[in-house]
Amino acid sequence: MDATGLSLMPNSTIPPPQRQELTDRQEETLRRGQASSSTGFSKRLTISSRVKAINPTVKKLMAILQRTCLAPTQAFAIETALREALANAVVHGNRASPSKKVHVTCGCDSRGIHIVIADEGGGFQTDAVESPLAGENLDADHGRGIFLIRTLMDEVQFQNGGREIHMRKRPAPSG
Questions:
Q1: Sign of dihedral through CA atoms 147, 93, 2, 112?
Q2: What's the confidence (pLDDT) of residue 150?
Q3: pLDDT at 175
Q4: 50 Rama sector, left if φ>0, alpha if ψ -120 to 50, beta otherwise
Q5: What is the pLDDT of residues 136-169, one digit of tens each?
Q6: Residue range 75-103: mean pLDDT, rounded
Q7: Three-state SS at 109
């Protein structure tokens, strides 16, 4: 784990020497910008429950997506949704507890870009989230994250008692 709290997690049960060789090849492919949504990829990260870990994580994942499968027209939506979901996991899910982690899986395939963020908190009732557009909530200084995520992404699902958010952005139309 580095100073920002980022660490790469193994993506499968491949034995360590072969996993390292595969990881090295994947990283080299990503550096060269040769991966594409047709070949697909998936990256797993685990970060500490610190607000200062959010920005480096977003930057790292957005850089990978931009080199691989992100259409320029999708960048704002995905970056905003990713940032909001990470903030929710760190601040609300894990209550910024240093003993808890946030697990992120990000990738792309023929169905688009998919992101899963899981926290180690107590979860929440997703149907109890109030609309930020309701009159009594219009002046609140919080409560817009999930609304933004649902607005910006094509698919959003909560699983594991609200401890996981699954988001998908379908491929941008060509032409």
A1: negative
A2: 93
A3: 61
A4: beta
A5: 655 555 556 788 999 999 999 999 999 999 999 9
A6: 96
A7: strand
